[in-house]
Amino acid sequence: MIEFRSVGKTFDDGTVAVRDFSLVLPSHSTTVLLGSSGSGKTTLLRMINRMVDPTSGSVLIDGADVAGRRPVELRRSIGYVMQNSGLLPHRTVIDNVATVPVLRGVRKRDARARALELLDTVGLDRALADRYPSQLSGGQQQRVGVARGLAADPNILLMDEPFGAVDPLVRAELQQELLRLQGELGKTVVFVTHDVDEAFLLADQVVIMREGGEVAQRGTPAEILAGPADDFVAGFIGADRGSRRLHVREVNGARVVVDAQGRAAGVLEP
Ligand SMILES: Nc1ncnc2c1ncn2[C@@H]1O[C@H](COP(=O)(O)OP(=O)(O)OP(=O)(O)O)[C@@H](O)[C@H]1O
């Protein structure tokens, strides 16, 4: 379990990124921080592995304050996947995946063998292992990024807009892959995005954020859809535009669910 207790962050230049943020993130589930640019999502994510230290309050992992952990050691024990995969350009795919385990003392041969297994896990062909990142597509690079995030077998996986830079089709594929992986591995995933559909698809818990790290609403996707807390949330998730309203239409005796544009979304079971 990860817990933010009245956390604040004011950067050296006086920017208040987060005022007072509290949240519990249950283990083995996915929490999505959803909000527009500058709402403090990345800052909060990075507090978990001490890439950023809060200026007030504390962050706890399984009840222990991360302030008591050595940052480098903590960072290597937590998976981190970012938007542009963050791969080392002069290292091959397999070396990129094996880097952290080697730094943690795993023998190189063992780390490479495990890295090959991880390529399978994220749905990448082992034939790509000796390529350099620039020789991969964007979607393949992101998969390598996920494999690298999983390499140290962390309990916690931090994902900062990991699929933001790939085209919509590949993005949808990566989202499905993450759902499958999460079903198998059951990590504690913290996922940052400003894409509402992505958030609702992946999250067990969604946290909708306003500027300054203020929580506008927290709940399951169904709870938020069923009852947006205010106009800000309704606007953010598109409820006010009716774009998430589904209707039932009778077609040849069957009840078909259609979206705001009249597109068929599915059939209601009798
Ligand atoms: N190192 C820094 N120094 C000063 N201000 C910063 C620093 N890092 C972030 N900020 C500011 O803190 C605020 C929150 O930034 P943060 O990156 O956490 O937002 P975000 O919600 O992740 O945004 P995005 O979706 O654009 O990544 C912004 O106003 C940003 O400009």
Summed up:
This protein is α/β, with parallel strands linked by helices and 270 residues long.
Give me some keywords for this one.
single chain; 270 residues; Rossmann fold; 2 domains; six-stranded mixed sheet; four-stranded antiparallel sheet; binds adenosine-5'-triphosphate
Explained architecture:
- This is ABC transporter ATP-binding protein.
- Keywords: ATP-binding, Nucleotide-binding.
- InterPro entries: AAA+_ATPase (IPR003593), ABC_osmolyte_uptake_ATP-bind (IPR051921), ABC_transporter-like_ATP-bd (IPR003439), ABC_transporter-like_CS (IPR017871), P-loop_NTPase (IPR027417).
- It comes from Microterricola pindariensis.
- GO terms for molecular function: ATP binding.
- The protein has two domains: 2-243, Rossmann fold (3-Layer(aba) Sandwich); 244-270, no CATH class.
- The mean pLDDT is 92.
- The radius of gyration is 20 Å and the shape is globular.
- The termini are far apart.
- The protein is built from nine helices and 13 strands.
- A hairpin with a 2-residue loop joins strand 11 and strand 12.
- Helices cover 33% and strands 27% of the residues.
- By secondary structure, the chain is of the alpha/beta class.
- The strands form three sheets. It has a six-stranded mixed β-sheet with strand order 6-7-8-3-9-10, with helices on both faces.
- Bound molecules: adenosine-5'-triphosphate (ATP).
- Adenosine-5'-triphosphate binds at residues 11, 13, 15, 17, 35, 37-43, 194.
